[in-house]
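Example record for the data management plan.
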Amino acid sequence: MEILSLIQSDPLVYKNDSLIRVRNLMNRSLLPELPVVSEDDLIGTITSKNLVNILPKVKIENLLASHIAEKDYIKSDVNSELSYLAKEFLSKKRFIACIFKEKFIGYVQRRRLLSFLLDSNEEIKNYVSKDFVTVDLEESIKKIIKLVKNEVPILILKDGQPFTAFSPEELYFIIFVSNYAVRKIERDFETLRGDERKILKMRINQAKLRKLKEEGKIVHLPPLTVADMAKNNFLISETQTVGDAAKIMLNFNKNIIAVKEGGVISDLSLLKALV
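Corresponding structural encoding:
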């Protein structure tokens, strides 16, 4: 019954929601995957990765969430063991698991499973991955956009040393909610009013954007450079513990952390400790 403490039922995407609505929900909740429902029935899930790949190819004016809901989501019974959920996340690499008790009752974020590892004193060195590509802090944001399609973590270097890291999921999320995708989304701009209209209009100057962020009306600012995107860096040492890494990921909504000695550690790799 440990799963019960992790279940959430908000936010949800409804089948007739526009991509504008989806974008704003993801932006405010910092979730790169959300369930799509019709009344209390689950249709599927929608991911920022899929949205980034779709946007350049389609006209979105009449595109609704139900049109692009994915069926390959993780499905779990409310009584499933944590180890089962961890295995499903490791296998399918999704961000949420949809939970059922006869019918859909909510979902569990992958990262929230890390709350069961906060007291672990095991060193992280056995979970560090060398599977990544590097990008210098001074590189163009366009390089990040090209590299994300390789589905490999990106380690950001500053003066040749590890500085911070981003998972493909984090990058697809940032790309979708920020300026890169807005050019396509703005076709639906006139359907919004008030604050939502302000949040979407990314062409206003940076001072106004930052004011909106301070007021809590927008979460992500459009990254202009890799340095801008990596402003809040996270770095951990191989001698630190699994609990240390889990705490950083939970507190700062990170899926991956750069390792000082060279490498990255992800929430997925830490979930192996629960299997």
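Summary line stored alongside the record: The chain has eleven helices and twelve strands.
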